[in-house]
């Protein structure tokens, strides 16, 4: 008889998951995904169930890695909240199953994983595509994703200036007050973007907030928001003039309003660059459109050695896993 699933709450995930471990393993799995080897990674485009009464969606993102024996899925509820709402805009849960028996092995809070995974892949895109002498980082947005992107970008890169913009100056000022390190808040998105070498868009906007006319030639843009086919963060000029990279061609063509509505052509997946199949055109203006694939959100939390050991075999402390004494 199978044991009941382990439940791993957000504080434990946060203690165990670190960018220095997450980034290289995400880079590895991006490459595996782009090879389209079903024994390495099998994942369909995520499905969406409209929650019309609550102005949201429930997304389901399954993935199976046959060679490593990992079967998992992520369930996330995404909402467009009214201004001033105290309700969360996203809630996520991760499920790990036994691929042979089908029983559930673990239930994990998915919020920390989602924020860190998304930011880590954006950082990988910058590592591969931004100019090596990039000095100015601009973040459009001030939510949890903005914070996770600030954390990993300032951990991995030595920017001389970091700028932030929000729809209200108050939010931008509050963001600057609550993060370690020097930032500059801007009231105008255009002013924040002008001259920036790397631009991260992490907004809940459904209309463009970043315009090609503002973007410095040779800049790199990591576009994280606008995850529905009729939502936008970037205008047509930027989408058509930049070299477009994505995490998944299928996902981009099915889900990204920035890609679908602009008619922009995908040049490569990020995994193609990792594999050496396509070049990283650092000298050109580049856009990485992130949609968040289940392979990266669901598999990579388990590459943290301690967490993987705990979930797969160290439940009773027999493995000496540090998670067993972490109060999970």
Major β-sheet annotation? 8 strands, parallel
Number of strands: 14
Examine the coordinates and then state which fold CATH places here, giving the name of the CATH topology of the largest domain: Rossmann fold
The coarse silhouette is: globular
SS strand fraction: 15-25%
Provide the CATH top-level class of the largest domain.
Answer: Alpha Beta
Stretches where pLDDT is under 50 for at least 5 consecutive residues are 293-328
Give me the number of helical elements: 12
Query: CA-to-CA gap between the ends?
Result: 23 Å
Mean of pLDDT: 86
Helix content: 25-40%
Radius of gyration from the CA trace? 19 Å
Q: Return the domain count.
A: 2
Q: Would you identify the CATH architecture of the largest domain?
A: 3-Layer(aba) Sandwich
GO molecular function: pyrroline-2-carboxylate reductase activity; thiomorpholine-carboxylate dehydrogenase activity; thyroid hormone binding
EC number: 1.5.1.1, 1.5.1.25
GO cellular component, one term: cytoplasm
Protein name: Ketimine reductase mu-crystallin
Describe the structure.
This protein is an alpha/beta fold and 328 residues long. The protein folds into 2 domains: 6-113 and 299-312, 2-Layer Sandwich (ornithine cyclodeaminase, domain 1), CATH 3.30.1780; 115-289, Rossmann fold. It contains 12 helices and 14 strands. The chain has helices at residues 10-16, 19-34, 111-129, 144-156, 169-177, 189-193, 236-241, 249-255, 257-262, 270-275, 294-299, 305-312; strands at residues 6-8, 47-51, 56-65, 70-79, 90-97, 104-109, 136-140, 161-165, 184-186, 198-201, 220-223, 243-246, 266-269, 286-289. The strands form 2 sheets. Strands 9-8-7-10-11-14-12-13 form an 8-stranded parallel beta sheet. A 6-stranded mixed beta sheet has the order 1-6-5-4-3-2. Mean pLDDT is 86; it is low at 293-328.
């Amino acid at each position: 008889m199978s044991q009941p699933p382990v439940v791993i709450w957000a504080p434990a995930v946060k203690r165990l998951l670190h960018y220095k471990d997450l980034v290289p393993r995400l880079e590895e799995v991006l490459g595996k995904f782009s090879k389209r080897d079903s024994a390495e990674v099998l994942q369909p485009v995520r499905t969406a169930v409209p929650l019309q009464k609550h102005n949201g969606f429930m997304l389901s993102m399954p993935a199976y890695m046959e060679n490593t024996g990992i079967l998992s899925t992520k369930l996330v509820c995404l909402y467009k909240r009214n201004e001033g709402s105290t309700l969360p805009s996203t809630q996520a849960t991760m499920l790990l199953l036994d691929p042979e028996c089908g029983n559930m092995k673990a239930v994990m809070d998915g919020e920390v994983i989602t924020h860190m995974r998304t930011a880590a892949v954006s950082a990988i895109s910058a590592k591969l595509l931004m100019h090596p002498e990039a000095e100015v980082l601009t973040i459009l947005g001030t939510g949890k994703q903005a914070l996770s992107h600030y954390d990993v970008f300032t951990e991995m890169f030595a920017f001389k200036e970091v700028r932030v913009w929000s729809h209200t100056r108050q939010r931008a000022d509050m963001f600057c007050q609550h993060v370690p390190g020097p930032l500059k808040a801007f009231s105008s998105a255009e002013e924040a973007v002008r001259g920036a070498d790397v631009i991260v868009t992490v907004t809940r906007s459904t209309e463009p907030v970043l315009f090609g006319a503002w973007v410095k030639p040779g800049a790199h843009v990591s576009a994280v928001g606008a995850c529905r086919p009729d939502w936008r963060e970037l205008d047509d000029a930027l989408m058509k003039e930049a070299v477009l990279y994505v995490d998944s061609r299928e996902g981009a063509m099915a889900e990204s309003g920035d890609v679908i509505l602009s008619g922009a052509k995908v040049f490569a997946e990020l995994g193609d660059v990792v594999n050496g199949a396509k070049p990283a055109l650092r000298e050109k203006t580049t856009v990485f459109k992130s949609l968040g694939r289940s392979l990266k959100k669901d598999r990579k939390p388990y590459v943290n050695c301690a967490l993987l050991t705990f979930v797969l075999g160290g439940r009773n402390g027999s493995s000496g896993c540090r998670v067993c004494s972490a109060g999970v």
